[in-house]
Design goal:
Elements: E1 5-10, H1 18-32, E2 36-39, H2 45-55, E3 60-64, E4 78-81, H3 88-94, E5 98-102, H4 106-118, E6 122-125, E7 137-139, H5 143-154
Helix pairs in contact: 1-2, 1-5, 3-4
């Protein structure tokens, strides 16, 4: 089986600074498993995730809303500008085998909703999504716990 693709979704300006550290840890842990990591390519949770992936020698892939590759935060090994604005969220979700949502924003919520609606499994940390918890959305307390949940879901 090929290495899975995991979308790490989160705010470009998270309200809780601790989520940045969580995202860095998650990126590192995902990369250590040899998984490919997708992000929206911008700041905050996305940049922190890419930094963690890069630190572990993994592959972080940015799918940008705009057309300029230079908009991607450092750490992304592959940068794909779409020119699609927020519609690129659908590309992110449909390119992923699973979603790890860290914190939240409107964009994050749209990705989680689209993933749940289309059968892409979601694990979430640090968000108010527990109301949606169920087979489509599982809640984790830490990056480590989230990656373990993903490993079980992806059987990887």
């Amino acid at each position: 089986m090929a290495a899975p693709y995991v979308l790490v979704s989160g705010a470009s300006e998270p309200r809780d600074p601790a989520l940045v550290e969580t995202a860095t840890t998650a990126g590192r842990l995902l990369a250590e498993r040899g998984w490919h990591v997708l992000t929206g390519g911008l700041g905050g949770v996305m940049a922190a995730t890419a930094a963690g992936v890069d630190e572990a020698g993994g592959t972080a892939i940015a799918i940008l809303p705009g057309v300029d590759r230079d908009d991607a935060s450092p750490g992304h090994a592959v940068v794909l500008p779409t020119g699609m604005g927020e519609m690129r969220n659908a590309l992110l979700v449909r390119s992923a085998d699973a979603v790890l949502s860290i914190g939240g924003s409107w964009g994050t919520l749209s990705e989680v909703a689209l993933a749940a609606r289309t059968g892409v499994p979601v694990v979430t940390i640090g968000t108010d999504l527990p109301a949606f918890a169920g087979p489509e959305v599982q809640v984790a307390e830490s990056a480590e716990a989230a990656v373990e949940l993903l490993a079980g879901i992806l059987q990887a």
